Amino acid sequence: MDRPVSASHPATAAASTDRRRDAACRVPSPDPLSPADRYAELFEAVQAGRVFADGKTFVDCVPRGDPDAILAAYRQDRTAPGFDLSAFVHRHFVVQQAHASHYVSPPGQSLADHIDGLWPVLTRHPRAHPPRCSLLQLPEPYVVPGGRFAELYYWDSYFTMLGLAASGQAPLLHAMTDNFAYLIDTFGFVPNGTRSYYLSRSQPPVFALMAELCAQHGGPPAAHYLPQMLREHAWWMDGADMLAPGQAHRRAVRLADGTVLNRYWDDRDTPREESWREDHATAAAQHGRPAHAVWRDLRAAAESGWDFSARWLCDPADPAHASRRLCDIRTTALLPADLNALLCRLEATIARLCREGGDTARAEAFERRAHERGAAVRRLLWDAAAGAFFDYDWERTRLRSVLTAATVVPLFAGVADAAQARAVAATLRQRLLAPGGLGTSENESGEQWDRPNGWAPLQWMAIQGLRDYGEDDLAGEIAHRWLTTVGAVYERESKLVEKYALRPGAGAQGGDGGEYPLQDGFGWTNGVVRRLLADLPAHPAAGCRAAAGAPAQAPG
Q1: pLDDT tens figures, 510-527
Q2: What is the distance between the alpha carbons of residues 466 and 108, in angstroms, rounded to a whole number?
Q3: Other C-beta atoms within 10 Å of 281: how many?
Q4: Which has the least CB within 10 A, 68, 299, 307, 542?
Q5: For strand 93-94 and strand 62-63, is the pairing parallel, antiparallel, or unpaired?
Q6: What is the tens place of the pLDDT at every residue in 246-266?
Q7: How far apart are CA 376 and CA 51, in angstroms?
Q8: Closest CA to 195 of 312, 55, 346, 48
Q9: Which residues carry out catalysis?
Q10: How far apart are CA 405 and CA 306, in angstroms?
């Protein structure tokens, strides 16, 4: 567990509240419209016309003038002979550069020093926020993942913050926690990312974990953020109390026996604005299912953070519905093991903080919620024969059979019982442990959240979850293999990347698959690796050095 570097003090909490209130007063109100709504047919023309190779480029552009005036100019000019859409866009918008490489280590720089040098390069400051664009204003500095991801992301940031703590960047850790509290205060939840086109969905709920990490490293006590935890929980549970058995509303589902669990969802059922062309193509490949249903499930998978994976497709164990096509995605039909484990952890945290604060009635209510959800996860999402937690298909009333690394999250959240933890450890060792760390799934679907890729957040949750249940040998093996993989790529290429391919016999290499090229940077890889190096200072990866002949550092 994390150890505090200094004790929290009431004055710290008061200062945090004052700083957040004062900074929030200076933050301009966000544009209530996303780029698709703001630019209407101009948006569709740009995306359909492939003005930019990456659909995220246009929705991140900064308008040079008033957006309404730009749209009016487009409507007036588009019918003129020789109208050039690309020239029009570049005349009226500033294109934000997506850096292929943010930082190149000097030859011989250690892996830890490389990560420490990256933090200021990946840090963004509110005063640098451009006006009138899709970027949501924030009151405090924050760290972005890198590459095409030039905004703050929700669950990514918890894993990034682990590394900030290990690097001695406590003030930035505190500032980021305050930013997430501000987002909850402003929107009622934490958006997927700080862009207006992300305001219809969230990501795995880890704010309570951030608050605890912040407190452990000299920030305000976790109870300081209790109001935001309560508000986030209410957002996830919206409509749950009104559901009849077999009904669902937004993210809440009530099963036939009265059990309430949660699913991923998105409040919009249109193509993702940052992946408009891809989503149109995916829906066009589906026959007999409305496009809006496909788009909703694609968006819901984006809320999960696992975008995309065979995990969300039809179950290969079900011959009547087996499919490997992304257009058959069914995210909203599934009750995920990881989401419900994290919500159980949130409920238990709220209960503990309320009891410590003397709010006995609310403490008892959330203790009951956590107990009921935990029991449901252990009963409904557990397959004793397979020795793993799976997602539950509430529409077809059956447990899924697609094994993924999400099975570790009930251990990470403290929801599994001791026997289940032992069984999960055995299953991981037999079926998901790869030469370079913990594999994401057993399916080689071509999607990035499947074999052969390994991801930093899954390594961390597996390592911590296994350690918490006494499975130290396997936890240590995963940590060793992951650090060895990251270190080998760093020695060869002088960088860290978003994901890594864990192919037997192929050697360490960056991952592949998905909708966009492999991204350098990279926030959560930096965070998890930096924390593991602090925990395991004698690991050989600590001695890895940037490749000889690499140019001097050149931040992008």
Answers
A1: 888 778 888 988 999 999
A2: 34
A3: 13
A4: 68
A5: antiparallel
A6: 999 999 999 999 999 999 999
A7: 49
A8: 55
A9: 307, 498
A10: 11
Distance CA 553, CA 103 (A): 6
Q: Report residue 325 as tokens.
A: 């096509």
Phi-psi sector, 188: left (phi>0), alpha (psi -120 to 50), beta: left
Instruction: Give the whole-angstrom CA distance, residue 274 versus residue 276.
Output: 6
Are 529 and 536 in contact by the 8 Å Cβ rule? The answer is no
Q: What's the pTM value of the predicted model, to 2 decimals?
A: 0.94
Cβ pair 161, 119 in contact under 8 A: no
- Is residue 204 within 8 A of residue 340, CB to CB? The reply is no
Say if CB 530 and CB 544 are below 8 A apart.
no
CA dist., res. 437 & res. 302, Å (int): 24
C-beta of residue 274 within 8 angstroms of C-beta of residue 47: no
Dist. CA 439–CA 420, nearest whole Å: 20
Distance between CA atoms of residues 536 and 166, nearest Å: 12
Asked if residue 408 lies in contact with residue 469, where contact means CB atoms within 8 angstroms, the answer is: no
* Distance (Å) of CA 331 to CA 69, 267, 307, 390: 39, 14, 10, 13
| Residue whose structure tokens are 């403290």 | 414
* Other CB atoms within 10 A of residue 108 CB: 11
Cα–Cα distance measured from residue 117 to residue 131, given in angstroms and rounded to the nearest whole number: 29
Tens digits of residue pLDDT in 207-217 = 999 999 999 99
